[in-house]
Structure prediction request, 426 residues.
Amino acid sequence: MDEPGTVFYLIPENEEALEIVDHEANSSRRRVDPSNVSRRFLRIGLDQPAKIPSRLVTFGRFHFTNDIILHKFPNTDQCYFDFHPITGELLLHDISKDDDTQLFKIGKDNKKAEEQICTSPRRCVVLLDKEWIFEIDKAVFRLIPRRAATDQDNAAFASERLAFVHQIPDEFRTFEWTIERLDAMGIQSDRSTMTGKGYNLRRRHPDGLKPGEELRCVERALLGSGGQGDVHRVVHLDTGDHYAQKTIRWRVMPEWGIYNESDYKARLLKEVNLVKKAAHPNIVPYLFHQGWELGKKVKLFMPVYDGNLYTLLRHLRHTAPDVIHSTIERMLHKMLLVLDHVHKQGIIHRDIKPANILFRGGDFFLTDFGVAKFVDKSVTLMGTEWYAAPEVLLQYAEQTPEVDIYSLGATLVDCYGGGIANFRHT
Prediction:
């Protein structure tokens, strides 16, 4: 049975690691297997006070700043674990001068496989649903996360990690403040200072990716499926950021003259550029995109939102009518601002509907420009029939920005009429 508050255990795999476990300075974190008293290991938990409050645990030679003492190691600062302040993902940071901290996948032969720290600054996510090989110079540990048998256990574990982040004192909430304070006391290495100051949550624009560079991500949950493909919540393995990743399934589209993968991707790239051109605080952006080479799946990365208009009003169905009405009015105001913005640029969306209006907190965002295009008197039937304007359904009539206003009106009727708003009575 795991002790309450446990995050992971470090099981020594060689003599160098066992020597770290047995060092007297590490006795408070040392545990003994009751079924095998010769088996000793380290426990890392949320309930164990850290020398640096913003971190879970720090490894190094210097007692003043480190929690696990590496008394025979040359590095004053070796590495540390902390949690992403927004997502709660566990992160390992290598701050050694020799880049000799590493995390490895465990292969089929029960031996270390691919390295996980492969970027600068040197850090990676430690997924807590599997075991890892954790190396500090020559010391080798097996990192075993706390057991979570059910989805409820996983949710509780995630809540505990975020609660840990939220209780960090304000003065330790930024790495810059922490590093500067330690540096002023003369007890922080140059490498640690450099790494700490390199940590931030700012996102890079898609154009910031180098040619051929791709995000290393792992899928966490299915958020939805549509005509273009599936959308998953993913974790970026180098930063701990979460994204909504849309994986595109290419298909033949005779209505657009698309009969092969190359043409489809060229059309899709136009959508990406369209969203970039239409940039607005209430339009869902594409933060990254990759997979444009033939034979690869295109992946579009967006922020994660709380849900769409349907899910929000379902959630509010048992609340007072004035709450629902104020929510709808706020949505309408934001969508009118967005449509005014894109229409002035000569863009029509052509698929306004509740499923394409996302929310986060009290704000609303328009997504899915997959059928949008510049105004060109198109007569192609696109969009969702229930919300489509007559000229879209008739196909032969000229389509103008007014089709979006019609669809937004249909969405409003759905909210107030026999559609979404009546979920509160079901």
About this structure: The CA atoms of residues 278 and 342 lie 6 Å apart.
